[in-house]
């Protein structure tokens, strides 16, 4: 716009000079125009290097067109011979050079702008997607769920947002009308005498070019430059530059006698140019809009974050997540269901919100009217609801049992992998992060991704390794284990009643577990943990590739001496995990005992299926398993026998079975120089359900068994089938 205004004024002055009609008034104003332009360029170079370069090139072109290159050089030479001219030029040059030194990324920015036509950046891709899903005829203003995902939809990409709501054909019609009106507004002043003809032509052409460029950019023909569409968008940058250009025209246009004559011969030519620009823009905008409307891409993940979604519900109908009247996600339960998913408009979604995003946003059944109107627009996105395997009664019981302490708990079905409860007291409250930056979110979810010291529950894996390798346990010490000069004893200096694996698990004997670990060896311990229990890897799940962290056995990070390996075998050196990973490890034992279909332990899953608006429930399947080889059934029988004895007369005597068949393994992880401990228990109920809890607190209040009892009392013997409504 600035270039257009300056160009028209300079052309008039140059033509007047050529015709011999230049007045002293115009001559003085031409130098004022030059000084003003240099100052503007200096400020622009410091503020924004891209427009500085474009404006400089444009000014050189229009100046050459107005005066001729030789005339510019001769005039500049005369100016430089004057002291004040030389000083002013030097100062301006220094300012421009200093400002231009900031153009360190110019070589990447300019090609990037051009290449964005072929590989759109994030904001352009969102705009194209919204526009294409609007079809030829849209559903109406503020109806497109895609429009909310356009980053600059209120300014640069307003035509795309308008097309998303009203349709590409309507947007093209409005664009054609707007360009037509602006073209006429640019031509009419050419046939008016006096300086107002120059001013009107300058403003008209300026606005026409800005509108044409913005519309062409919105249909992918020219690079986006940050220009809003005039008369449709109010942008500070557009208003500022327009006001400056109009001010230059008003203040520096020559008098009537100098303007009328030079423009007489060029009016028709300029009018033809403006008309050609107008018609070319109209044709291209219409053609490109229609092509875009006929090619509908799949919904992108980045767009889904901003779209209204269906509900996420528990197995028994409680709402985990919904959509408010403002289109934003709501979480009525607060942190109660945070492990199941969260959407942050900074650009992230996880767990169920991520894995089922396509169904939540566009998985619903279209209406009959939508199917009929598919000839003019794509099927609009209809929201579907997601039903999870979480049971609100069991989930609530876990939250109440953990009230007042720091910890986590989960309940899974070892036969199917369904997760019926998953809760951690340290999970965030979703509404606390509304409007906050993405960096404020925690990097991991405590119940399924954090890695806490496991303590003696890790002895399940140690026992499996010893049993698989047939380690002779007859030489295991019942009271103390000595390796590399270090002494390891049982808790409370307890003497283990025997060296059998069953008693090691029942009474959590450190000495026999350390002995077994050293006999098995580090590499074999690591192999067994990874092969049979899926340790050392992320556990496959239906809520994301990296949603569940597996157990870290602590055996894969360099050579361990005998003392370190002994401590690792009892879960005190480097073995770490979370409640869901430990529940899966326990479930692997149960699956080997019961011999469920498929042999392996099904990977944990939370999504039961979808309700697409037609009443019928659509089940979702997930066929992954944990580990690469099923645990031998004889090994699993021995481990389960030890866990049953732990409940009858061992470390898990405090469990309240209430008529249920219960087996368990307890554990305590202590850290040097810390006052708090990790108290663990993993429980098998009715040879099917697994409850795993962990409490991080001081020794006096750290009781994972107390938490497990609170959940066990709410655990039904069967869970209802998933359904809609």
UniProtKB/TrEMBL annotation:
TM helices/strands, residue ranges: 31-63, 84-103, 166-187, 199-221, 227-255, 276-296
Any Pfam family matching the protein: Transpeptidase
Start and end residues of each Penicillin-binding protein transpeptidase domain: 407-711
Alphabetical list of InterPro entries matching this protein: Beta-lactam/transpept, Beta-lactam/transpept-like, PCN-bd_Tpept
Keyword Chloroplast tagged: no
Domain of life: Bacteria
Key words, A-Z: Membrane, Transmembrane, Transmembrane helix
Name of the protein in question: Penicillin-binding protein transpeptidase domain-containing protein
Organism in which the protein naturally occurs: Tsukamurella pseudospumae
